[in-house]
Each structure stands twice: as C-alpha cells, then as structure tokens.
Amino acid sequence: MNEYLTDIILRMNDKSDQIMEPGYNSSETISWKALREAEKVDNVNYISELIQFIDSEKDKKERDKAYFLLGHIAKNTSDINATEYLIKRVDKETDKYIVSSLLDRMSNLKKQNGIDLQPLINAIENSKWQIRQSAIQSLKNSEDRISEKALIGILSVSEDQYDLTYANATLNNMGTERAIPFLEKHLNSRKRDVKGSAKFAIESIKKRAEK
Q: Are the C-beta atoms of residues 49 and 82 closer than 8 Å to each other?
C-alpha cells in the first residue's frame, strides 16, 4: 500500500505519547493530529488501495482507522464507489465498536437513490444499542424512500427514548411530509428530548417542503 497511507494509519493508532498526567493535552498527541489530518484527505487515488487493505487486513484496529480515512475521502470527494463499499462492510464486521464507528461514518455521506442501503436498515434492528443508534443516524443524507420508511417504523413501534430521539433527528435532516403524522405522535412525549426533537423535525420538514 502507498507509503503515506501506511504511515497515517499507524499514526492514528499511535498511543505512545498518551500519558495521563497533569498538563496532558490530548490535542497535541500523534494520534489526534493524524485523525485531524485524515479528515482533510481528498485523494480519490487512495480509495482502491484502502479497499484492498481493508479486505486483507486482519488487525481490527488497523481496519478501523482505514475505515475512518476512507469515510472522510468519500465525504470530501462524494465518491459513490467508496460510499457503497463502506455500506457493504457493515455486514462484514462483527466487533460492535468497529461497526458503530463505521456506521457513524455513513451519516455524513450522501446516499443517492439506487445505492443498496439494506446493511444500514438491517443494523437498525440490532440488539446492541451502540450499533442500532449509530445505524439510525447513518440514514442521514439519504435520498431513498426506504430510509424514511425505516425511521417511521421506529417512531411507530419503539419505546426507547434514545432510538426515538435519534430517529427524529435523522428525519430532521432528510424527512419528508410523509413523516409528519408519525412525528406529531411524539409531541406530547414526557421525555423532553423526544418531544423537542420531534418538534424541530416537523419544522425542518415544513421548511424544506416550502422551497
């Protein structure tokens, strides 16, 4: 793999200078600086190399950082192939923290109609809350009606205040007028976050509909 890619992945995982003591500043560490650097990478030529690396790498920490880097390249370049690959990998990973982190990458990526979102939809039903709630948020910036349908399903049956709040927040980002009746049912919730997020989602949807 490209020497730069190998180096930045190693630096993102470098914990050698993370010493907890008075005056410790995490923003000055090797890994923190490397992560901020990775967020700005926009070289599409790195995509195929990162995909090959992920497909063959056994170390999950290395794959995790490769996902982080690839996710930001996909965001910075709007590359559909990278986005589709990352979505498919949701079904391949088993570690809940890696899956959750991978799903978190998805929320910032534009997901056009035609992209297979089933791995994200499947993850919404996961019994592990870390995965389930990241999956709900991963549907942000989606144009496919299947995403809204899945979120409406949560509003219809879930009693988990966090699932409901995240579903409301995601609909705030990409929901249509179809979701309003389901959001309105939560305007009287005794949970402040559920009630507030439903209200804001309805307002955002109505503003989009007026344009």
A: no
Q: pTM score, two decimals?
A: 0.92
The pLDDT averaged over each successive group of 10 residues in the chain (211 residues) is 96 86 74 96 97 97 98 97 97 96 95 94 96 98 95 97 98 97 97 98 96 77
Contacts (Cβ under 8 Å, ≥6 apart) of 159: none
- What is the CA 10 to chain-centroid distance, rounded? 23
> In this structure, what are the phi and psi dihedrals at residue 111, rounded to the nearest 5 degrees?
-115, 100
Distance, in Å, from the CA atom of 34 to the CA atom of 51, rounded to the nearest integer, reads: 20
The size of the chain, in residues, is 211
18-to-23, 24, 29, 189, 192 alpha-carbon distances in Å: 12, 8, 7, 43, 38
